[in-house]
Write a structure and sequence with these properties.
Layout: E1 8-10, E2 13-17, H1 21-30, E3 36-40, H2 43-50, H3 53-72, H4 77-87, E4 95-101, E5 103-104, E6 107-108, H5 109-114, E7 122-127, H6 132-140, E8 146-149, H7 155-167, H8 172-179, H9 184-190, H10 193-206, E9 209-214, E10 217-222, E11 228-235, H11 239-248, H12 253-261, E12 264-266, H13 268-274, E13 282-284, E14 286-287, E15 294-301, H14 313-320
Parallel strand pairs: 2-3, 2-4, 4-7, 7-8
Antiparallel strand pairs: 1-9, 5-6, 9-10, 10-11, 11-15, 12-13, 14-15
Helix pairs in contact: 3-4, 3-8, 11-12
Amino acid sequence: MAFKFPLYHRSGSLIFLDDDIDYLEMLGMVVPTFLQVELFCRPTAFIARMNDEPARWESDAGLHLQMFDRWRHGHHLLPQVLRYWGSSPARYQLVQTCVVDFEMPGTDGLKVLHTLLDWPGSRILLTGQADEQIAIKAFNLGLIDQFIPKQTADIAGRLMTTLIKLARTAHPRLNTVWRTGLQAHHQAILEEPSVMDALLTLTRERWIEYVVLGEPFGLLGLDADGQCDWLQLEPTSGLNDVADLARSAGLGFDTVRSIQSGTLLPAVELHQQLGLSGPIRTGQATPIGDGGLLIGAMFHLAGPDLPLPIYPYRHFLDMQGVRHIHDI
């Protein structure tokens, strides 16, 4: 069974193709400004824009695989991810979803999408009422992820609901890669419904990119301004071991006792893996989900803590400016 929790998530670009310029302009206005949007009214320009996307996705996946290859040779994943975030700003320009109209002069949306079979993003087909049976067949064959009839009431709302749902769906390849770094008991905890819901709520409210790590266990997250946080997670069943680690790192008796009781968590491994200076940081622990299985503490990573500066996602949004149709 596929692992449902997205172990790696990031924002990316959305591309719309529709020969109806007025409709495109409407889409450009209704899609929230925290998303990158590109608008095309000609299939040739759209296909040219997407031509290099499979290779760019493959190159990015290669960087993830390289991190795990180095991890197997003793290099920690946490500092590697931070270096990747600092050295690969173009990852935000990878196209995550295409929304394509079915009925266009000289071609149709499925023929256009057939040119993207090697691209690993999501595909939405917009249809007229007469084209719905074609869309149903395409959906059942796995050629598209969703289809939306243009005559749907509140088409903009329906489209946004679909885009958000697809954006929150775990990417199969990246989930497979990052699952390698988790132990079985980590995976089991993340699949607990209340834990999953709590973490998904937190990530959606706070970060535009995050990754789940196993050594140490937690989430490394990045907001739109390039600010980085570490959410350390600890199963309550292992708090005595965490307290022993804190004691060996030189933390005092009262702090160790608070760790044993589950009110504080120490960032010992974070300090060790990033080579942080100063005393070991501790954070107030809070429950994650129901049942008392898991607690977490948040630690902010400021500029000196990071191996490289991180280019903010917000800069891509600022460069986007007023949305316009590229190929008029």
